């Protein structure tokens, strides 16, 4: 099949069978990959499982299928003589696809589909790229398809059966019944007529003595050569064999099969019974040995077991004491935590007080307050002096008025 014809089958409508064309291409691709020994050279080296016959034909896991598609394509391109780096799982898919399509175009193949079709990792386009890469890899390895050679089958003469000789069981039984009836009829014809024989003995003396009867006078001898007769028998013998077609529905066949199976079971039972008896004896001996060894080990390890039990009891007591002690320790740790918390608070207060004592800001404030008090005291002194002066002045004016009134009274005004 030419490449153009295959391309037409892959891309054309092709009727209702075109839906199943990817599965056919995938099966051909698997055969080509097996010819390239991909299971050892690709799967084991890059930790891939062997692909099934519909892996790239139907979508299952897009990310996994895309990585498998790019890795397999890169491997095929390297086999085909191209230098192509093996893609990694986290590479840019667009760059990887564009480089793969460039390599396919260099093989003189047409790519008439968008690169985004390859991002799914499956489908007709991915199969097209993989199939072309596999073809180029096979060409580079100088692999050519040859015509199949069919072995000539040696026809056994015993198996040559004419159509006329293939009879079913019913027909053979009918023919055998007819043959028996014919033989009985011939036997009746060949019975000697005693009455006629007696008459011949009485009246046929002439024929007995003179030779006029039907009895031959001498022994008959065959004129046929024995060697020719044997050759003729060997030539005709394959055609005389009748092969009966066994009918599976016949009860005789089932009975015969039952007898055969029964004989086979009996013969195999005789053989297997000896093996089973030997196996039973070996198992019983092994069990006895195991029992004796177990008793010996128990006797030898009895004191160790007692010590182990005593140690277990001591361990249980120690664990109980540990639980009680751990309960007291937890209480003490809780009280210690409280005391440490109070100590931290006191330390913090002492630090604050120390910082205040070493700080000069309060002294400056005190000085400012004293200066302010001095100024206020001066103001108060001034005010008190003014008030005293006013009071003194009022007193003096009051005394002066009183003296004037006394003088007026003295002069009689």
Oligomer: single chain
Percent helix? over 70%
Shape: elongated
Strand content: under 5%
Instruction: Note the total helix count.
Output: 13
Class of secondary structure makeup: mainly alpha
Helix and strand pattern: HHHHHHHHHHHHH
Task: Using the CA coordinates, give the radius of gyration.
Answer: 64 Å
Question: How widely separated are the two ends?
Answer: 168 Å
Largest sheet, strands/sense/barrel: none
**How many strand units?**
0
Low-confidence stretches: 1-13, 155-167, 187-214
> Mean pLDDT, as a whole number?
78
3D architecture notes:
The chain has 413 residues and is mainly α. The chain is built from 13 helices and no strands. The longest helix is centred in the last third of the chain and has 57 residues, at 302-358. Mean pLDDT is 78; it is low at 1-13, 155-167 and 187-214.
Write the layout of secondary structure elements.
Elements: H1 3-11, H2 21-35, H3 38-46, H4 62-79, H5 93-106, H6 124-140, H7 169-189, H8 194-203, H9 205-210, H10 226-240, H11 251-300, H12 302-358, H13 361-411
Could you write a compact summary of the structure shown?
It is built from 13 helices and no strands.
